[in-house]
Predict the 3D structure of the following.
Amino acid sequence: QKEVEQNSGPLSVPEGAIASLNCTYSDRGSQSFFWYRQYSGKSPELIMSIYSNGDKEDGRFTAQLNKASQYVSLLIRDSQPSDSATYLCAVEQAGRRALTFGSGTRLQVQP
Amino acid sequence: DAGVIQSPRHEVTEMGQEVTLRCKPISGHNSLFWYRQTMMRGLELLIYFNNNVPIDDSGMPEDRFSAKMPNASFSTLKIQPSEPRDSAVYFCASSLAWTGGVEAFFGQGTRLTVV
């Protein structure tokens, strides 16, 4: 079992729709969770962090965390073509002050 | 404010040659990470430092790989000898470690091709 799992996609949504990206993790002791966006040929860019159960909103982005289910998600409202990228879920596992990344979900927003 | 700076951006080398990748972290950050990204394996942590001290190098694939951080503003990742399977994008990232989470910021990466 991979430590951080994501559906590779591509996830295709029409412009203006809500995109929902999901991630599960195996280490129950994990405390910190992050979403990175990576455009083709570029480096990962931090877009959201979440540390406690529930929702955290930042503009069009909402991160959701459910530690009991070991599940993290990212919602992108009013999706734009410029949101087309690969979204990487990252987890800080217990006892390790470094991030473990999932393989990423490729999002395509159709104009 | 300058971000994480990596050099070179691109490196093409012949099998068997030594390769050195360089990284300057964000000023004030005390943790530094080296990652490798390939299509097959995704983004893998190779090694990380805290306050210039290597903490976890379990991701370093072989003894051919070594990393140093002689001071808070500079780190190197060396591959000697290089092999074609080392071809990948190598990222350096830094963060300010606190009691909360590790928010890591990435450099632009070095695309390494070993022929």
Notes: Chain A touches chain B at residues 31-34, 42-46, 49, 51, 88, 90, 92, 96-104 (CB under 8 Å). The first strand of chain A starts at residue 4 and ends at 5. The two ends of chain A are 36 Å apart (CA to CA). The CA atoms of residues 40 and 85 of chain A lie 7 Å apart.
